[in-house]
Amino acid sequence: MAVALRLSKPPSSFPTHPVAPSLLCYSQLFSSLQRRTASPLRCRCSKKKETSFADQLLDYIEGGPKLRKWYGAPDLLPKDGGLENEDESSEIDEVRDAVLVTDGESEIGQMVILSLILKRARIKALVKDKRAAIDAFGTYVETMVGDLNDKTFLTNALRGVRAIICASNDGFFSDIGRTKGAQHIVLLSQLAFYRGSSGIQAVMNSKARKLAERDEETVIASGIPYTIIRAGLLQDSPGGKQGFSFSKGAAAKGRLSKEDAAAVCVEALDSLPEEGLILEVVNGEEKVRDWKEKFTELIGTAEE
Fold this sequence. Notes:
The chain is of the alpha/beta class. The protein is 37% helix and 16% strand. α5 links the parallel β2 and β3.
């Protein structure tokens, strides 16, 4: 449970891993808010005080709006929720410090976004309903709505992006040109699980398997450093309760909490492989205390 801190001024610096709840605390709040709304993205704000889904989460775990502000909450958008018009044709030298989440409306995509918010990351997300996304995440996330086949929209979506996280088979990697300019790709894949299925389950998973194979092939051929996280069967179970297993072949038969999967995707951002890393992960017995150290170990093992 979070503890509200009474400080006279904001802390001068933050640790690499900000003071945050366990995934279990996050899970309990996420589930609670889901029950109160038809969809996590359809949170509604009262006229008296606008409080988005992300704000409620961070109030809960960081001790109130003041600490939330110190975690990097930007100023509120105008009342109409719009963003200032940008000159889409302008070529501005922009620092690439944003993380693009390719499916910000999927359940696991939202979990990834919430984990990124806690990391104080600059976030861009592809969504279909901009108003619902703004209601849910406020100005913590720059939401993008448009056609990925439109070059102008794609250019704007990738502007300032250093890393791409794709946590679902959303078709983003159907065109290799969509990765232009990115410095790191993190792909959550269930290919190992699909390949390990048999009988009627293999038939049911055949389409998803082909999409997963296409996504992995596109990412590997992109020439951009990548981390492909081959997860076991994704489960709607609380994260943070179990450890992990990274053994070869584990993903074919094992299971992984969606919340844990989202957390691993975000932790992978801090460890850039020279070329690429493919790892398998399921829930198991190993407790990971330092994810950067763990990914360094996995990268070293893969390069041997």
